[in-house]
Amino acid sequence: xxRRLMLPALVSLAFACQAIAQEGEFVRxxxxxxxxxxxxxxxxxxxxxxxxxxxxxxxAMARTRRHLFVPRRFTSLAYADRPVPIENGQTISQPxxxxxxxxxxGVEPGDTALEIGTxxxxxxxxxxQLVEKVCTVEIVRPLGLAAANRLRxxxxxxxxxxxGDGYKGWPDCGPFDAVIVTAALGHVPPPLIEQLKVGGKxxxxxxxxxxxxxxxxxxxxxxxxxxxxxxGPVRFVPFVRPRE
Length: 244
Ligand code: SAH
Fold this sequence. Notes:
By secondary structure, the protein is of the alpha/beta class. The protein has one domain (2-234): Rossmann fold (3-Layer(aba) Sandwich). The chain starts with a helix and ends in a 10-residue tail after the last strand. A seven-stranded mixed β-sheet has the order 5-4-3-6-7-8-9. It has helices at 2-24, 27-42, 55-63, 95-104, 122-128, 141-153, 190-194; strands spanning 84-85, 91-92, 112-116, 133-138, 159-163, 176-181, 196-206, 213-222, 225-234. α2 (27-42) runs antiparallel to α3. β8 (213-222) and β9 form a beta hairpin. The model is unreliable at 17-21 (pLDDT under 50). Helices cover 34% and strands 23% of the residues. Bound molecules: S-adenosyl-L-homocysteine. S-adenosyl-L-homocysteine is lined by residues 90-93, 116-117, 119-120, 122-123, 137-140, 143, 165-167, 182-183, 237, 239-240.
């Protein structure tokens, strides 16, 4: 009788331990990743400005299990401060760049944010913890579908994923307080500016594919008016333009 009662108890204890172990996995690696981001800004590198990367962004990144967003064979690289290959020849951005773009986009808790280039879904997962609603567009169907499943399984239920050409934005999901584009193009797509609210900011690598681009911030100051500045060189995968 005791044995019969103990077995289910032991099984559920084993499951609970496994869940706690998984939650606790890579905590140290994540803390080191955050230290690296802090040291960039402390050294005045990385264009984060006087105030550095805000704590709420670092906290979201310290909580997010980045190793679940990279292919299993790259688990050991998940928390290194470098981009990591994902499927379909794409990459998940370097953690510092994720922090920086999120900061430069000036996201606030009530915001609706648009991301172009879902990739693994990592940037969307960070945004999901900082704003009200995230809309993200991915042109490579298998990547978009995998990211949508991953984000759902991990409980990021304020993220909507669409498979399609991000050049056109996502008018039905907007207008947006912040837009983050994670692929490089020689110009900012006008529809993305149109879908930006007055006072909103867009952050994007502007420049040629296969070379360095300028990390550019476009602020919509009034209907039809923008202010643009760029903070420094970055290197992103190309923004794909399908033939119409
Ligand atoms: N933000 C991602 C990294 C993205 S890499 C992450 O956190 O993992 C850039 C992504 O942009 C790639 O997945 C690529 O397929 C996608 N992309 C390129 N051109 C696009 C377009 N026109 N519309 C939408 N996505 C595009």
